[in-house]
Amino acid sequence: MLDFLMLMCVPLIIALGALFFFKGKVTIYEFLGQLGVVAVCVGICLAVAYNSSTTDTEIWNGQVTSRTRDVVSCSHSYDCNCYTDSKGNRHCSTCYEHAFDVDWTVHATTGEAIDIDREDRQGLIEPKRWDAVYPGQPFSSQHTFTNYIRANPDSVLLGTKGDVVKFAAMLPPYPDTVYDYYSHDAVVNMGVPNIDMNTWNWLLANNVNKLLGPSKQVNVILIFVPTDDASYMLALKDKWMGGKKNDVTVVIGSKDGHKVEFADVMSWSTNSDLKIVLKDSIEEIGTLDQRDAIVKTIATTVQNKFVRMHMKDMKYLMRSFQPSGTSLWVSFIISVLLSIGLAIWSVKNDITDDSSSYNSRY
Question: What does pTM read for this prediction?
């Protein structure tokens, strides 16, 4: 609200200036209309700044349940039977290239269905990718949500600031890429040797995410880092602003790809036991050679301990939301230019009778 009032100060001065210095040419209605238009513009600018600051993405996980060949209405229309009437107006009917089209669809436990691209325009040829689909395959999708934490991350990450510069080379971008329709790699290796990424990704996807995704609404991420410095987690938490509301991010430090130097967990789970139990369990295993044991521990602990945070519980952070300086300057420039333009228009155009002008009232 304060930002809105500040951005309206200059437009108000411009509107008042036009009203007083051009008595008889600018009416009170034009004055109020000018302020109303600028106020709407400022509101839209602030709304855009709000949405851009709080819009985020998360990964949903599940598994393929079935694939279907669906006959649907043709989507390829064109104008046909056209004619021109006596007034020169052209009229056409809508025709379709085919009697029907065919969709090749994949269904998942996330409640979603996606179509595989057609091999031909009508979809009569079975796509090779659809032929490779089978029930039980891991299925991931990217979704947009409002992340109130992004509005004021300092207030919830206070006391957990890490040395981002020190660990810059080991801080990965957030892994939210979904490829090949529904594939997602939730394992990240920042340089640890002897890590078989294909095996780790397969184990995590098939034994954790696809099974617990629908029931626990969880996305488990596993990161390997070549360090024994456990303060790495603070830097990652700072870089990722704590992760997403459905994440359980497991970090394992190892210099040789065998010995577990340290383990740590980042999650917004409302059950704090999750992080403690999972960290201690992985460190107790002590070696990355026991991949199955580590993945089983992750699955069991997440199943028993993870409770997803509801983002609505963080909505209070919007009370202290502050748009970026860039967005405020852009909003200010737009509002001033718009106000000047409307003032000039009001001087040159009369939209009401002169009897309603400021001059005639005084």
Answer: 0.78
100: amino acid identity, one letter: F
Q: Tell me what the mean pLDDT of segment 73-95 comes to.
A: 93
- Report the alpha-carbon distance of residue 299 to residue 61 in Å, rounded: 14
Residues 6+ apart with CB under 8 A from 99: 74
Angle at 275 between CA 270 and CA 281, to 5 degrees: 145
Please tell me the distance from the alpha carbon of residue 19 to that of residue 290, in angstroms, as a whole number. 79
Q: Tens of pLDDT along 36-52?
A: 888 888 788 777 777 77
Which of 69, 76, 152, 77 has the alpha carbon at shortest distance from 104?
Answer: 69
Whether the pLDDT of residue 286 is over 60: the answer is yes
Question: Does 170 fall in a domain?
Answer: yes
Mark whether 115 and 175 lie in a shared domain.
no
- Please, where are the H alpha helices in the chain? 2-21, 28-54, 128-131, 153-156, 197-204, 210-216, 232-240, 273-285, 291-305, 325-348, 358-361
Give the number of residues written for the chain. 362
Q: Tell me the β-bridge partners of 84.
A: 90
Token pair, residue 111, equals 């409640």
User: What is the average per-residue pLDDT within 316-331?
Assistant: 72
Domain limits for position 44: 2-54+320-361
Q: What percent of the chain has pLDDT over 70?
A: 90
Residues 203, 225, single domain; the answer is yes
Task: Give residue-wise pLDDT tens across range 142-198.
Answer: 999 988 887 776 666 655 667 889 999 999 999 999 999 999 999 999 999 999 999
Name every residue whose Cβ is closer than 8 Å to that of residue 210 and which is 6 or more positions away in sequence.
Answer: 61, 62, 63, 109, 136, 137, 138, 139
- 3 in helix, strand or coil? helix
Long-range (24+ apart) CB contacts under 8 A made by 256-259 are 256/192, 256/193, 256/194, 257/192, 257/193, 257/194, 257/195, 257/224, 257/288, 258/194, 258/287, 258/288, 258/289, 259/286, 259/287, 259/288
